[in-house]
What we know:
2 copies of one chain form a homodimer. Chain A is an alpha+beta fold and 323 residues long. Chain A has helices spanning 70-82, 106-121, 128-143, 149-156, 192-197, 205-224, 227-233, 240-243, 250-259, 281-297, and strands at 10-20, 29-45, 50-56, 89-97, 159-165, 168-173, 180-186, 202-204, 264-267, 274-278, 302-308, 315-320. Chain A is globular. In chain A, strands 1, 2, 3, 4, 5, 6 and 12 form a 7-stranded mixed beta sheet that branches. In chain A, strands 9-10-7-11 form a 4-stranded antiparallel beta sheet. Chain A folds into 2 domains: 10-174, 2-Layer Sandwich (Ribosomal Protein S5, domain 2), CATH 3.30.230.10; 180-308, Alpha-Beta Plaits (2-Layer Sandwich). In chain A, strand 5 and strand 6 (168-173) form a beta hairpin. Chain A is 36% helix and 28% strand. The first copy, chain A, has 10 helices and 12 strands. In chain A, helix 2 crosses helix 3 (128-143) and helix 3 packs antiparallel against helix 4. The interface between A and B is large, with 40 and 40 residues. Strand 8 (202-204) of chain A pairs antiparallel with strand 8 (202-204) of chain B.
Amino acid sequence: xxxxxxxxxxxxxxxxxxxxxxxxxxxxxxxxxxxxxxxxxxxxxxxxxxxxxxxxxxxxxxxxxxxxxxxxxxxxxxxxxxxxxxxxxxxxxxxxxxxxxxxxxxxxxxxxxxxxxxxxxxxxxxxxxxxxxxxxxxxxxxxxxxxxxxxxxxxxxxxxxxxxxxxxxxxxxxxxxxxxxxxxxxxxxxxxxxxxxxxxxxxxxxxxxxxxxxxxxxxxxxxxxxxxxxxxxxxxxxxxxxxxxxxxxxxxxxxxxxxxxxxxxxxxxxxxxxxxxxxxxxxxxxxxxxxxxxxxxxxxxxxxxxxxxxxxxxxxxxxxxxx
Amino acid sequence: xxxxxxxxxxxxxxxxxxxxxxxxxxxxxxxxxxxxxxxxxxxxxxxxxxxxxxxxxxxxxxxxxxxxxxxxxxxxxxxxxxxxxxxxxxxxxxxxxxxxxxxxxxxxxxxxxxxxxxxxxxxxxxxxxxxxxxxxxxxxxxxxxxxxxxxxxxxxxxxxxxxxxxxxxxxxxxxxxxxxxxxxxxxxxxxxxxxxxxxxxxxxxxxxxxxxxxxxxxxxxxxxxxxxxxxxxxxxxxxxxxxxxxxxxxxxxxxxxxxxxxxxxxxxxxxxxxxxxxxxxxxxxxxxxxxxxxxxxxxxxxxxxxxxxxxxxxxxxxxxxxx
Lengths: 323, 323
C-alpha cells in the first residue's frame, strides 16, 4: 500500500515502555508494559530534512537536534536505508508519556514510535523486523551502546530475547496469560552511563554458568507458562548486586515484593525503576502497595505502574487526512 | 510395588551415553543418544555392603572399590538416603558398552544405570527426580565436580537444562522430531580434570552476554522445533576456543561438519568426542563420513555414532527371578 504524497498527511504511533534485562537476562531479555510510552507524530515537510519540531512532556531535557535525539537518529538511519537521493522532509513531534531516565526504555520508546510512524507515512516499506536496526541505532546515541532489548520489546510487544546484536537476531517469546507486571519508579535520578560503567568487565565463570542456566530456564518457563519455573529462574548473580546499590531501599523493596507473593523482582533496565512479576491483577496491586510503602517510609516519591504484559508492541494510533 | 526379598533377584538397567554442554550450554545443557551406554546388574547379597563384583569392557581401567567407583558412590549415597540401620548387601556388575574418557558421559552412565537398577531392586522407593542427586554424587568422584548435565540427560533422556546444581533443578526440554546426532570419538586420550583446569576462572562480561543469549535461544529453538534457530544458537565463545586445542584436527572436523550441512558442531562434554546436530539420518551419515575423513587423513582412528536423540533415558532392561 503506497501512501498519498499529500504533504498534510500526519501519522501518529505509540510505542510502549519496556522492562529490559528481566533479572537474569542482562542485555538479552525484555518485555513491554501497558500504560506509559511515547507517541510520535510524523508528517512530510517541503524542506528536505528530518526535523524535530517539538517535544512535549520532557521538561526541556531532550535535544531537538535530530542528530542528538534518539528519534531523529533512528529516522535518519531509516531514510538512508530508503536510498533516496535527498533526505525527504520529515517533521516529528514527540509526546513523552512516560518518565525519562527511569529505566523503562524511554529512549527506545521514542525511537520505536518514530520509525513506526514514519514507516507508515511512506507506505510501510519496512517490516517491523526491518525497523528494529533503525530504532537500535537511536539507542546508540542515547545510552552509548546499541543494546536492543528495550527497542525490540517496545516494537514487537510481549517478551523478546536478543540472541545477537550483530547481526541483530531477536526471538519473540510468548507472554504467559496470567502474568502481570508491577513497576515502581522511585523519583531519583541515576545516569544510564554510570550504571554501565560500574559493571565489572570480567566476571567469574561459575557465576556466568549460573546465569545462563537461569536465562535458559526463564525462556523455558515463559514458553511453558510455568510460573514456578519463572520464579526460580528470576535470579541475577551478576548485575543486580552491583547496580542495586545505586537504588535507595532496593533490598527492602525487593524483599517486600517477594514476601507479598511476587514470582520475582529485579531492576528494570539500569534502574532506578524496579519491577516485579506476579500472576494476577489483585496480586499486582498488593505487591505494588507493599513496594511503594517502603519508599513512602523513606519519604521518597514514586510512581507505580501495574499492567499485563503488552503483547501488541508499537502501533499506529492516529492518522489524519488521506489515511 | 514392593520387590521380593528373594536374594537371587537380579535387576539390570541400561543408561545411555550423553552429550553435555551442547555448544553454548557449558555445565547446563545435555542430551542422551542411542547406542552406546552402560548396563549395570544389581542383586541383593548376604553380607551388608555395596560391592562391585566385576566390571567388563573397561580393560581394567576402573576401580572395583565402591568408594572410588562412580556407580558404587552413587549407590552408597542412595542407601544412606534409604535410612537403613545397616547398609544392605548389594552386588553390582558393570558392563561398559561405551568408551571411557570419551566425553560421552561414561561415568554418568555407570552411576545412572546403577541407581536405576538398585532402585528397582528395592521396589522403586525413589522417583527418577529423586535418583538424580545420587547419580550426581557419583560424578563428583569421577570428575571432581558435581555437574549434572550428563547424569540428568542419561537418566531422563531427551534434552535437559540444569538450572541449578544446588539445589538441583533440572528442566526437561523436548527433542525436536527430526533432530539426529553425529558423534565422532577420536581415539586419543584427554583427562577431564585437565580440560577443566585450562578454563579461565574469569571471563569477559560481553562474551558471557553473548553466551546467555545463545543459551536462551537454543532452549527456545528446541521448544519450537526451530532448526534454523538451533543452528544460530549453537555457538560457544567461551569454552570451545580453549578446549578445542586439545583435540587434534578439531577446527577441520567442525568445518567439515558445517560444510556438509550440519546445524551445528561442538565438543561433546570435555571431549575428545565431537558432536554435530543434523535434521535427518541421511544427513547424519553424510556429516559423519566427512568428519571421520578428516581424522582418517590424520591417520587417527575414531568411532562414529549416529542416532536420533534418545528420549527414553535410563531403563530397566532385564529382571530375573521374582520380577
